[in-house]
Amino acid sequence: MCRKSIFSCRRAPGPGGRGLVKAFRYGLVMPGGSRIVFDLTGPAKIANSYVLEAANSQPARLVLELEEVDRAAFVQSLAPENRPELRPAIADAPPATVPAAAAPETAQQKADGRPVVVIDPGHGGIDNGTQSSGESEKNLVLAFGLALRDRLEKTGKYRVVMTRSDDTFIPLNDRVKVARGLKAALFVSIHADALPRAEGDAQGATIYTLSDKASDAEAQRLADSENRADAIAGFNLAEEPTDVADILIDLTQRETRTFSSRFAHLLMGEMKATVRMHKHPLKSAGFRVLKAPDVPSVLVEIGYVSNKGDLEHLVSEGWRSRAVGSMAQAIDGFLAKRMATAGSSN
Ligand SMILES: [Zn+2]
Fold first, then answer.
1. 346 residues of the chain, pLDDT tens digit each
2. Contact 124/170 with Cβ under 8 angstroms?
3. How far is the CA of 193 from the centre of ligand 1 (A)?
4. CA of 284 to the centre of ligand 1 (A)
5. How many A from CA of 66 to the centre of ligand 1?
6. Residue 302 Cα, ligand 1 centroid: separation in angstroms?
7. How far is the CA of 329 from the centre of ligand 1 (A)?
8. Which of 69, 118, 176, 233 has a CB 3.0–4.6 Å from the CB of 73, allowing a cystine?
9. Contacts for 297 with CB less than 8 Å, ≥ 6 apart
10. 73: CA distance to ligand 1 center in Å?
């Protein structure tokens, strides 16, 4: 009976819940700040919340008492003035932002004329992404992203910036802001997909670019699921600034899309030499993280954690190193051409 006090139930943290709580999860959302998210079975209110000091060899406990309410009462309680107790830190604090987005560039960084490559490992913190056989997408793509960063930095040709370099949650808009704020030459988001068992098996890497209309139903499903990252972490999309929420069909964006597509093709050409690719490796859909109007952006699903063979690759350092090598090669090819063009037009 867990209707009243969730954490008195001593259930291991995880997706399972009971009573009014369908599922819950928690994790880091900003330096020094964690968030707990509950999915409820229906409208409810927090009747009481308090912390119990550690006692009787039990750790300190956060106790939340939930009470079922009807829909009208629930909607009423959503008004900001009715929920001050839950909002102090969240309302006042800036969104969980990586230093690159928050801090203005130093003079030294500005003077660094090298093209900026932003690597964006998906998910993080409270948002695990897809999971299979004990492996989480958030960890796999972070390892991949860090390896790619190291590879690119070794060339000395680029300034490489990570949207996250540890297990922190970063909202989608903040990831886009990092790329825009640094006037990045390229934004590469790294993910690993999964197919529900009922939908059969799929394997291989897929490269996605932005489009208003998904290239197929699977691309649409994936974009929907990747775009849910903020909701999973408990971020209210309505409160997010909407500067990149709408796709601007202007010339800048059209040119950016051309470059994104050019990079996607180059990347496929390089990756297929070392990485098993999906049977339709180039797709497009409305990924929020790809919506910087002025930064060529692609999202790479490096494989399916739900596929046994892919998962073996994803956790293998040898595979990672080869895949990262191909990606670095494609980035080199793309940026060499862009820099040459930029140089000649001056
Ligand atoms: Zn993902």
1. 334 333 333 444 456 678 888 887 777 666 666 777 788 888 888 888 888 888 878 888 888 888 888 888 877 776 655 555 444 444 444 444 444 444 567 777 777 889 999 999 999 998 999 988 889 999 999 999 999 999 999 999 999 999 999 999 999 999 999 999 999 999 999 999 998 877 788 899 999 999 989 999 989 999 998 988 888 777 655 444 444 444 444 667 888 999 999 999 999 999 999 999 999 999 999 999 999 989 999 999 999 999 999 999 999 999 999 999 999 999 999 999 888 876 554 4
2. yes
3. 6
4. 15
5. 32
6. 10
7. 23
8. 69
9. 179, 186, 187, 188, 189, 209, 210, 256, 260, 289, 290, 291
10. 35
User: Distance from the CA of 65 to the center of ligand 1, in angstroms?
Assistant: 33
**Going from the N-terminus, what domains does the chain have, and what CATH number goes with each?**
6-92 (no CATH), 101-344 (3.40.630.40)
Gap from CA of 1 to ligand 1 centroid (Å)? 35
Strand pairing class (21-30; 33-40): antiparallel
What's the pTM value of the predicted model, to 2 decimals?
A: 0.72
3-state secondary structure of 204: coil
Q: How far apart are CA 19 and CA 4, in angstroms?
A: 9
